[in-house]
Amino acid sequence: MTWAVDEVKKQAHEVLTELGLTTTQARVYFSLCQVGISTANAISKESGIARQDIYRVLTELEEMDFVEKTITKPVMFEPVPLEETIDVMMKERAKKSSELQTKTHELVQSFVAKKTRLIAEEPQFVLIPKGRAILQKGKETLRATQDSMDCVTSYKRFLQMMFTISGDIFETLNRGVKFRFILDKPDDTRMQLPKNVEDFRKASSCSIRYISHPPQALIAIYDKREAHIVTSLYPDFNGASMLWSNNPSIVGIIKDYFETIWFNQSEAFESFEENSAQNF
Q1: pTM over cut 0.85
Q2: 91-102, pLDDT tens digit by residue?
Q3: Is the Cα dihedral 187, 189, 195, 198 positive or negative?
Q4: Number of structural domains the chain divides into
Q5: Do 68 and 135 reside in the same domain of the chain?
Q6: 107 in a domain, yes or no?
């Protein structure tokens, strides 16, 4: 039975402290609830709090409106009913939580707005390490693309891209984004293209042109606002890092590079396909 009483006390003290009372305040207040109207001496014995501290703690509880003092001789103390005290503290806690939620929301919005302004006002250059980070950045950029993607890459890297992130590419294609690819011609013109590549090139919003030599720079431009530049000509994603930039000057240079090849040096897929058939 004693064990059960001790457990109730322990639980009561934990609840009251979680609601905002100090450990000492919780012990004194709950002891007063148990014994009812009492003297400071009786409360000290019940709570185990030294008498020299009892008056200080009872004064604190009075100021919180959780204890009432009766001017008698000796002075008596009466607790506000436990359920009323808990209700008051719960409402106060809910109020503080609501205020904190408002403040945190304002903080996040302010931070996001500031970050957005920084991005808008300060063009960026980010060197993305080789490996999976390049794939992840490519996926994120594709998902954010709204109008167009122009890309110069090697045929081998193009096939690897279609094998690795074709799901993201087709999802972007289905949103109406226009794709233009410039590739070097494959060594074997009779080689059958993978089905997903066939499906991709047949899409109305996809155009592929070829150049007779491997590209000297591997680049991609998204919505004419940001560019990816591969830092070396390794045939796979794991062999090189990549520079990302939304600097208008860099994006403009890369865009001009793409357009020059597209209109002056490349050969349409249909023409290449006819030559392939004749060679075959």
Answers
A1: no
A2: 988 888 888 888
A3: positive
A4: 2
A5: no
A6: no
If you ran DSSP here, which 8-state letter would residue 212 be given? Answer: S
pLDDT digits (tens, 9 = 90+) for 191-235: 566 787 888 888 889 999 999 888 888 999 999 999 999 887 655
Check which CATH number belongs to the domain holding 75 and give it: 1.10.10.10
Q: Mean pLDDT, to the nearest integer, of 237-263?
A: 88
165: its two tokens: 């992130």
Peptide bond into 74 cis (omega under 30): yes
Are residues 135 and 63 both part of a single domain? no
137 lies in the same domain as 267: yes
Mean pLDDT of 29-51: 89
Q: Is the pLDDT of residue 279 over 80?
A: no
Among the listed residues 130, 5, 16, the one whose alpha carbon sits nearest the alpha carbon of residue 64 = 16
Element (H, E) at 49: none
Residues 55 and 144 in one domain: no
- Per the structure, the complete domain to which residue 48 belongs is given by 2-85
183 bridge partner residues: 210
Closest to 259 measured CA to CA, from 150, 147, 149: 150
